Amino acid sequence: MLLFMASLKMFPQTYSFTILLLSLLFLIQYCSSFNPKLLDVSLATESGFSSAGATWYGGPNGAGSDGGACGYGSDVGKPPFSSMISAGGPSLFRSGKGCGTCYQVKCTAHSSCSGKPVTVVITDECPGCVSQSTHFDLSGTSVGAMAIPGKAQQLRNVGVLQIQYKRVACNYAGTNLVFKVDAGSNPNHFATLVEYQNGQSDIASIDLQLQDISVSSNWRPMQRSWGAVWKLDSATALKGPFSLRLKSANGETIVAKNVIPAGWRAGVTYRSSINFN
Which residues are registered as beta bridge partners of 136? Predict the structure, then answer.
C-alpha cells in the first residue's frame, strides 16, 4: 500500500487523469440507461391518488346525465353543491353500489392541465368504458374545471385523458338525506332512491320499521333493487308512517324516524332531518 501511495505521489498528473477517465466512463454508463420519463413529474402519481382514464360527454359546458342508471338528477352536480357529475366504468359503478360516491380527479399529463383537483359524484354507468381498469366519463364542465383558465376546450379535445383520482367524502353541506319513492311503488312494494348521502362509506343495509305497535320492535330488511334504489316486498300493505334505518359500510347507523308519512305516494320525494357524518 505504501508503495502504491508513493507511486501516486510520483505521478500526480497520471492519477488525476485516471480519476477523470473513470468519472467519464461512469457518466456514460449512467446516461445510457437513463430514462427521462423518471424525471417527468406529470407522469408520477401523487400519494393517495391512483391512475385512471377519462373521457367526456354531453355539451362542453353541460352538467352531465339527468337521472342515468343511478336515478339521480343532475341537481347533485349544481350549486350550491361543490361536486360535478360523472359516469363511471364498471370498477367505479360496481353494479350500482358506486352510485353517489365522490371522487377527486385531476390531470397533470397535458399542457392544458391545471393540476388542481375537482370533485365529482358518480350518477351514471358507462358500461363500455373498459379500455382502462378505471375510467371516468366526465361532464364537459368537469373536464373544463381541470384545465388552466382559457384552455378548457383544448383539454376537451385531447380525447382519452390520463388523470389521477381518489375517493373522498361527499359533503352536501346543509342538506339531509332525501328518499325519492320509486314510481313503481305500491302498498305491497315499496322502493326508494336515497340521495345526498354524506361521508365516504357505502350504504351497507337499509331496514324499514312500521309504526304499528304490533311490529314496532321489528325491523324488516330491504334489498338493493338497482343503483341506489332499495326495495321491500310485503304480503301485507305497508301503511305509513314508517321509519328507515341505514347502516354504512364503516358501521355508522342512523335512523330517519317516520320519514315516510301516512298516505305516502309513489313518485314523491320525502326529506329527512338526518345524514351521515
Answer: 54, 88
